[in-house]
Amino acid sequence: MLKSLFCFIILTVVAIISKGQVVPAPLEAIPFSLHDVRLTDGQFKKAQQLNEKWLQEIDPDRLLSGYRTEAGLNPKGPKYGGWESGGLAGHSLGHYLSALSLMYASTEKKLYKERVNYICSELSMCQKAIGTGFTAGFPNANQIMEQIGKGEIRSSGFDLNGSWVPYYNLHKLFAGLIDASNLTECEEAKSVLLDLAEWFYKLHNPLTDEQIQQILLCEHGGMNEVLADVYAISGDKKFLELSYRFNHKAVLDPLAEGRDELTGKHANTQIPKVVGTAKQFLLTENDKSFKTATYFFDQVTHQHTYCIGGNSSAEYFGEPGHLENRITSSTCETCNSYNMLKLDKLLFMNNPTVELADFYETTLFNHIYASQNPETGMVLYFSPLMTGSKKSDNKGFSSKFDSFWCCVGSGMENHSKYGEAIYFKTFENDLIVNLFIGSELNWTERDLKVTQTTSFPEEGKTSFFLKMDKSQKFAIRLRVPSWTSTDYLVSVNGKALKYHVKPGSYLVINRKWENGDRIDYSFSMPVTTKEIPGNNKLKAFLYGPIVLSASLKEGDREVLVSNGDPGKQLVQISKNPLRFQMINQGDAGVLELMPYYENQGVQAVYFELFTPNEWKKTKDVWLLKKDKEQYLAKSTIDQMRFGEMQPERDHQFEGEKAIVGERLGKKIRETSANGWIEFNMSVKADEAQLLMASFYGNVGSRSFSIFVDGKYLTTETIHWMGDRFVDKSYPIPIDMTKGKELVRIRFQAKDEGMVPAVTEARIMRE
Hints:
Blueprint: H1 5-18, E1 30-31, E2 37-39, H2 43-57, H3 60-63, H4 65-70, H5 91-107, H6 110-130, H7 141-149, E3 159-160, E4 163-164, H8 166-184, H9 187-204, H10 209-215, H11 223-234, H12 237-245, H13 249-256, H14 267-284, H15 287-303, H16 334-350, H17 354-368, H18 406-414, E5 423-425, E6 431-433, E7 439-443, E8 448-454, E9 461-468, E10 472-480, E11 489-492, E12 495-496, E13 505-513, E14 518-522, E15 527-532, E16 535-543, E17 546-551, E18 559-561, E19 570-572, E20 580-582, E21 591-595, E22 603-604, E23 606-610, H19 612-635, E24 636-641, H20 645-650, E25 654-663, E26 666-682, E27 689-696, E28 702-708, E29 711-718, E30 725-732, E31 742-749, E32 758-765
Parallel strand pairs: 6-10, 18-23
Antiparallel strand pairs: 1-5, 2-7, 3-4, 5-6, 7-8, 8-9, 9-14, 10-13, 11-12, 11-14, 15-16, 16-17, 16-23, 17-21, 17-22, 19-20, 20-21, 24-32, 25-26, 26-31, 27-30, 27-32, 28-29, 28-31
Helix pairs in contact: 5-6, 5-8, 5-18, 6-9, 8-9, 8-11, 11-12, 11-14, 13-15, 14-15, 14-16, 16-17
């Protein structure tokens, strides 16, 4: 009985060899199926239960609405709100299929399997109505795909033939059907999947490589990954060949050659492409795929990643090794970490290192778990790290039925699969323990049950209880995390074992195990600091792997004045092992710190460290800088960032002769002669306000006029103001905003001129 895709990868070895096809790489670490792991008590169990409640409240017919409409069938329910009501309609159904399948495997509750069966029967009906094997839920899907099949391809980055990322949408459907087929054994899921794959192959096989690369200019998720998955399921090599044709060369070839050209690229557009190369490697041992996946992972985790394991600011990668100026309220898109953990797991299967396991733990505890509201179960798009921000800033937590962002879809999945990377087994049938999470493993091949009991991270210890009918000899490999010290202790049945394994390694206990054996494992959880890439004075504090954040009150400062080890200035509050006080801050006050995942208030995560002498010299300048940042944060009503996909969509950006580009590491919009740009901005109906915009100054005489809802406001000229961004402010007469919640701003080039490069605009309280 096939339980997961990874079982497929293993079991298809024999079939593929017998057909004379490509031989998969031997796996060094094999994940257990979610069917074999059950969460017991603890924070992840509670998070899973919150997610279950939400999944059960979602109406499948409303997610199927667009699919039935595009198939010429009457929908059984209206579309949901948010992204589901627009051009990305249908993408959430694929995520929902995956989440249901993952939750079924995690709980064995029949409700989830029944919903999978129902959705797949509806999709089959849609396929039959269309008659080609195709089905999709986004507007004008049939027409768009017919055009592409004829070689009519038009893309400007985030749209293709006038549709918002249709291949990204299709990728979610493929992935959902793959999970449904692998985890629920729904035969109709497999049938719908293979019919969809046959249609996809017939449509794209006649296209040239150049035409396919043109398609890939538009965000397309991980189409190379799901095509590789279809190959693993079907054994048909044509899908593997098409998978390689769907490798986006402009992005993946530099990575294969060891070049980081990610600066200014939309982060989560790239990560699924690389997940696909890792899957290709596991199926084929292709050397180029391996180099691409490993180089990308190493660069992102070491040069582009924040302390909580997430990456990107406002969805984009910046300059490698320089995050010090990118600590914002829109850091760490959740989808990015969802996909990075997929990549981590695939790489671990080939090369099981503690470094990979440590990254998984860091990201799982500090970002994925933190992205769920502990009261409502709703999920975050961004996880803000800027001092003075809180999780409800920016997009905040989703609503149940009126958001359906990308991170809502991946969020449904994130909290359905917490058991997927706790345990692995080796090819020799030894056990690897990677995560300290209360759980029970049912190892069917050994007729063995392993129960892990722990209160981690409240305490640095965990215990394992073994239950079996007969004694067995094998090894158990316990992760000794890089963040601990050498004074860990391990005992079996109360007898201490002597080991000299360094942190960052596996402690291997190889013996004959008996029914009732118990392992007790304890380890220190020191307070350490982790600097932001690009500034060794700007550090986050961690307790073991847990990122700490300060709960800020008015006047608090994210400063630590210290002459020694700053970690020693955090004192644990005795009644709660996850609460700390930061002491000896000079005149900066006393701060209380807690895990980032618990802090729902105003916070600080990164702290500037000074010696007493440095603080004395720097204090006045530092306070002046912080006052400006606080002024902007407090006074901003709405903020628009140019050249970035989601902010431009959120603000209904339009333009003529508009150009997207980059200046000084920031995304910008500008125009050629006689061009214009327009965008919506939120306003307060009865307050004095001003428009503030940030322009690149090193240009000659660019004059343009500014209009508010078609009414002239002012004319501006930017002329050789230096190689920097210059902030300009324009008071808006109150009669232009009276009674309004939204206005339309236009920058119109004047007298054959051009609109200068602008990186952001704000509506500010005057």
